[in-house]
Pyridoxal phosphate homeostasis protein (Macrococcus brunensis), 216 residues
Amino acid sequence: MNVKDNLKVIQDEIESVTAHAPTIIAVTKYVTIDRAQEAYDAGLRHFGENRIEGFLEKKAALPSEATFHFIGSLQTRKVKEVINEVDYLHSLDRQSLADEVEKRAEHTIKCFVQVNVAGEDSKHGFAPEEVIAFVKGLQGFEKIEVVGLMMMAPHIEDQIQLRTYFAELKELQHQVAALGQSNAPCKELSMGMSNDYLSAISEGSTFIRIGTKLVG
């Protein structure tokens, strides 16, 4: 199917569960520039990449109105190569990365703190109990704005358990926002992908990252 038809299916599904449509990020890491352009032509304006090379290629090729999200793990030594092209960083997952972003960024970067809610060894991110202290430690950082929290849910069939994880991140987002920290408004939630975005939206996700189901 073409991207426009895929997008219509996704939008119809979203409307069936919420009146508050989240921002759809087209995850284009496995597709060509032409396919990413097709997504743009279908009306999508947010694009996600997880590798620096692919990120820079797509950003150079697409119109300047496109907003770019870096959604992959970012090595500290690679920050200088990409950070000033980034609109949103979804993988702020350690203090050393925050320090390097603060050092290298020439504009304020909208960041999601990555949280490993399920405690999976294969996933990056802070344990939930570490997040408040980390965010408090960012006071005084001028180049980092914690706009929200991000998670990658486990690949499980149990939708009730999935929603429990998403709800836990939502509660943590409220706790961070309640700090009232000027560089951490933390109003957003980046959670939900092709296999679980409806559950994520039901628990308050405001950004969903869709690859396979949208662009292939």
About this structure: The domain at 3-215 is CATH 3.20.20.10 (TIM Barrel). The first helix runs from residue 3 to 15.
